[in-house]
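Lab notebook page, bench 4
Experiment: in silico fold of construct C2
Operator: M.H.
Input chain length: 228 residues
Purpose: comparison with the prior construct
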Amino acid sequence: MQNNDSLSQIRQIEDGVYQIPIQLPASIELQGPILQETFLAAQRRLRNFAQKHGWQDHIKEPFTKLFQVYADKASFDHNLLEICGLDTNMGLPTTYCAALEQGVLLSVSPELYRTIYPEGDEAGAFEKLLTHEMAHRLHIRILKGDENAMGAVWFYEGFALYAAGQFEKNAPELSIAEIWDIVNEPERGSYKKYASVFQFFVGKASIHQLVENAAKDEFLVWLKEICQ
């Protein structure tokens, strides 16, 4: 994997936006400049979200020290598992396309992302994907490093989807019954539906209240109360 920016150091460009070294294989080396610009745009997107909600203090340090882009899913899976200290022969979900672990942001290429996850194809899809992964880290910083306080899968994925602006215009309309089915489902489900569910609850309470209460035992009781 070639390092397009091996000599440069991490440097702040503007508030909450940092120049980060990027690594990518020779087969997509020419995409380096546009990928770097997309990454900067993703940081600006997250910064704007953080500032809007009064969380700007949590973006004073970069979320990643390195950005790696992969042209094939097998290499992405292998290196992600290796970074996480897991068995590299483990299978990852087919639609798992990006992650931010151990200070490294890993992603498949924009082209591969569209192929693997056509459901996610929308304006700015790849930029939003990168924002989504950094949004998970913003969420953890808001919670003072307590990952266990992020809530159920629908909630922390919903938070990242909301922060990234994913599926704002094409999330499905869900009935109240469907929303509660998703909230009570322990297994991972549709990200588009998570976006709808999170948007629904943001219309009932502030995002600050939701984040603060997500890990509490009475969270679902509270959600039902605010929906009455």
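Observations: The chain has two domains: 1-142, 144-228. The mean pLDDT is 94.
Next step: discuss at group meeting.
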